[in-house]
Here is the input.
Amino acid sequence: MNMTEIPIAREHQLFNGHNFHVFIFTKTESVSGLHQHDYYEFTIVLTGRYYQEIDGQRVLLERGDFVFIPVGSQHQSFYTAGATRILNVGISKRFFEKHFQSLFPCEFTAAQAYAIDTHFLAHIESVITSHHFRENEFDEFIEVVCFYITNRLRHYRDEPIRDTVPLWLRNTVEAMHDKLKFGDAALENMVQLSGKSQEYLTRATQRFYSKTPMQIINNIRINFAKKQLEITNASVTDIAYESGYSSPSLFIKTFKKFTSFTPNNYRNKINSCNEE
Here is the structure.
């Protein structure tokens, strides 16, 4: 192979005659490097955050984001923010073009993060953490997710164009992922980082993210807590305080509100899923 040749992942080597090739796992590094496929693929972030470089452009993906990789797009991933749990679905070229091609938008940008509705993301998590996920109606569930993803892409340009997030706000939210910032006095830290008044910050986060500052902070905290539950044996109490909550009970209540699971239930389901 010469230096400019890009490796190609082949459908016939991975799919074994099936319509889909599905992985659900926690990754800390890329093992494939820059490559392309002769099939379609999308990746949904369930926990954590990472970068995808697609056709030379780098895209940040966080919980609830996905990218769709068409046939031939060159891409690689970077896990500079640590462990990231993903749902990765490869779709047979034949199956996609037969069932989904007609829904696919004429104009499409691969190097872009798209967001999944919070309720649908909760549904995905609920299904894939069930004990019998791979035994009951697996293909049907994946088909539903594929339809949602394709439909999301189709309607993306029909949505009102949102204002570009100003650099000061984007940097503020980025800095809040530091554990020292989303812990004690998180709201005060966010206000200080922004350099704005709390009222101005609140108006900005609601305008550009459709969330209050505390909703953004809780998203960051719960995302962090999920990673700890997935990759460590730390107690729920320790994780509660480490995630910035003043008490385990408040943490459990907030965690269940965001995920529909208690922390222990979530950990047990993730562990049982990983053991299958």
Observations:
- The chain has two domains: 8-156, 167-275.
- Residues 225 and 239 are 6 Å apart (CA to CA).
- The first strand starts at residue 8 and ends at 9.
